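Fold this complex.
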Amino acid sequence: MKYLTTVLAVVAVATVGCDMSKIDPGGGASAPSVVSLRGSGGLDLGSGAGGGTGGGTVVESGPPGTLVGRIVLDGDAPALNALVGQGQSSVDPTICAADGAIVDESLQVSADGGLANVFVYLSKAPEGDFATSESQKVLDQKACVFLPHALVWRSGVPVQLINSDGTSHNVSITTNKNGNSNSTMPPGTSSEMTFKRPEPLPFKATCSIHSWMSFYALVVDHPFAAVTDADGKFQIANLPSGVEYTFRVWHEKGSRAGRKWKVVVNPGPDLTNVELQYTASDLGL
Amino acid sequence: MKLRSSTVCILMCLAIAGCHKRSAPRFKLSTDSNSLARYARNAVQDELEAGFGTPDSFVVWSELPVDFGTYSGEVGRVLQSGEGGSVVLSADGLTPATELAFDSRMQSLAGAAVVVVPSDPDSAATEEGESVEPTVLRVGSYDSDSKTLQIVDQDGHSAAVNAEKGDSVQVVGSTLQFGRDLYHRHCVHCHGTSGDGNGPTAQYFNVKPRDYRRGVFKFTSTKDGVRASRDDLFRIIKLGAPGTYMPSFMLLPDDEVLAMVEYVRWLAMRGEAERKLILSLSLDHGKDEPAGEASLQENWSDYVEPVGEELNADWSLAEENGEVMFPVNEEGKSVARVEPTAESIARGRRLFMDKASANCFSCHGETARGNGASTEVINKIIGPEGKEVDAPEPGLFDVWGNKVKPRDLTSGIFRGGRRPIDIYRRIVVGIKGTPMPGTANKLEPEQVWDLVNYVLSIPTQD
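Structure:
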């Protein structure tokens, strides 16, 4: 009996001891800790930290060309339910969906299969200086819908948000690189925002008060980005020709990282005309 | 009997061996990293350990706007003995060199990094004239009476010290160590080792502990789009978040709370770095069609370099005075609270109910019970397959994916503080990471004070 107790006690010690090791590591306040440095550790060590070198490759590129393309959905698009039926809104029923249902814009396909609201863009700007003279797209809020549903903005250039409705909206933005923002916009007011950093992917923005409202925006630091129109068409001009580009093609229903698409642009008036296909399974339909 | 004792012996050996197998603690990677190819996931873990270290072995990364706690002194005498290297510092001994290096905490410097910087730079140069990085050693112990600093190597063994009289000595990292010890005593059981808000106790709560890893804190005095300041975190640790499980730590001395704040900020930065790395790597090195390890190494600096810069810029901004929201008019003049008269309260009530102005009632409801029409809408949430799906029930959600209710303003409980200025900031700045927007510059300060007066009057109204 004594033997058994001893064995049990030892087993108990073993079990308890080993269970301890399964606790989330670092849970012991008394465990000693140590410190090491990265870089100079903020100390003045009298020697400069080594700077990294940019690994940019120099490419012989030709005169600029224009990329014209179309993105189509291969297969039938499922019918989507309206986000809010006409006269069905619980919030602001006299303004939202008062004159017609609010349609689900997450999948807009034209009669001949053109897929709208697809982002086509270079993840990384090619070498060169690409000043912008274009004015930025304005985002409007009308009849409790964001207009447009998908748009490209340039980093560092102010963008305008306006509210054409008779009720207050708010634009709630959660980005990957530019922080988050959420402010109320009463009717007839406008807000200016500047996104300092390019974003790796389009981000989704919503209205918290009318939470079916959403739009997608991509922030880039170059002009080589477009969103397909209602026919699925896009155009990207002034691309140096003869270089192989890797574009990212991204749709809100597709995979999180989008797809990669490699293309070489022809110079001059010979447009590089391409058609890309999405299958229903690409979009998880 | 012999057999029995040997059995016991074997079991004991197993017990000891089993427990000694415990590997060095590491921060758990976020589950988002499961979307990455294995080599990319390992690269994230390695990079995070290079920049931040582990729960009990920190890295002082100079790019981060964190006060790791630095003390400085000057070598008076060098002692070498069988115990290893010691230096006797000149008259002052060690003195705090940064704001959060506390005078009162010098007894607990053990483990902090020590760097000896020669007073004569030539003595540290090679024959070719290149400067040599000083060796980083650790503090074994510090005796403030004899002003003696005992120095050990990275593994805690005795170390020879290459120093001369007049060299400067810097000790760095003690505040973060102090904050970490306190965090593990007071915070870890809810907020978790990595600050993921998922400590062992968290599963029992339906207001979830904050997950710091997005770098987002709900209740701040800073403007829209700006991170939380040290002051904001200090306040919420001291006062707690009434109406939630977050208690008040009012009884802890200020330097303890300041050290915890610094550790929480550091955990938040680690989480943000993790999130950003995983996101940028997921584009090219996701589980489906990964571009390969060679491509990862070739483009590594593109992924990593922006992270430190961004953390530095974003968290430094939060400490700037101009980023704190104060009640000021267009000329920058301070606007005092409007007297909470019946007229002011009535004006506030009208703004509350005005859909073309503050529009509070859409979420908080006409009776301010947190049951407005917006809470009846079915929202999109991220489903188990990573795709957006309709939520199973109506209601609003925060960026952490938790269902949140607009505050029932009749309760008189305000999580972000109940001072009039707290309510003012909640209205103007909003609650970060949640559907509660700020009014920004769309209301005059006097109008916001009217709203504050109304909100503070609600609990006492019939």
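Residues 2-20 of chain A form the longest helix (19 residues).
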